[in-house]
Design brief:
By secondary structure, the protein is mainly alpha-helical. It has eight helices and no strands. Helix 2 (20-32) packs across helix 3, helix 3 (40-56) packs across helix 4 (65-98) and helix 7 (140-147) crosses helix 8. The longest helix is centred in the middle third of the chain and has 34 residues, at 65-98. It is globular and about 50 Å long. The chain starts with a helix and ends with a helix.
Length: 175
């Protein structure tokens, strides 16, 4: 039955709509988008599910499954961040009722933590193009096509996002 649902979908092994390289790329986009290691398998499954649903709905397979999967993974990472922010706000409100002490991150992961914080502070649209450009390695034209926005908008968002992230890293004295 899985094979029938996957018809028309480019794929990997035994009806899997993602080949090994595409799965690695999806994992990388999710991880670099801030999704924790423990949640990566669920994210990969979500991308597979969306690709299978697309085929089951009779829609044509994407021209470039790898790029399409990277965009979907980027969107999933943004959704994860939104949910995480909601949880953090709730946690902050609860902590304010108790004690405002916060544990400081491990020195060995200072850069990673600073980049993650910087990414979290970016508006969703800027974070999305930054992740798609530098982590999913999509060209500006590819990002514009996938997101349905002009190339100039992609370039502007990238420029602004990189500048803000660089400023954040200098602020934290990480670079």
């Amino acid at each position: 039955m899985l094979r029938r649902k996957a018809r028309g979908v480019q794929g990997g092994r035994h009806g899997d709509p993602l080949d090994a390289d595409q799965e690695r790329r999806v994992r990388a986009v999710l991880a670099l988008g801030g999704v924790p290691q423990a949640d990566l398998p669920d994210g990969v499954q979500q991308v597979r599910l969306r690709l299978l649903e697309r085929a089951a709905g009779g829609r044509e397979a994407p021209r470039d499954v790898s790029a399409w999967a990277a965009v979907v993974a980027s969107n999933l990472a943004m959704d994860w961040h939104r949910a995480q922010r909601r949880q953090e706000r709730l946690g902050e409100r609860l902590a304010a009722l108790r004690r405002p002490d916060h544990a400081v991150g491990d020195d060995s992961s200072l850069l990673s933590a600073a980049v993650a914080r910087g990414l979290d502070e970016l508006p969703d649209a800027q974070r999305q193009v930054l992740v798609l450009r530098f982590y999913a390695d999509l060209p500006v034209r590819g990002i514009a096509e996938r997101l349905g926005i002009p190339e100039g908008t992609v370039k502007s968002r990238l420029h602004t996002a990189v500048r803000a992230l660089r400023a954040r890293l200098h602020e934290d004295e990480v670079v």
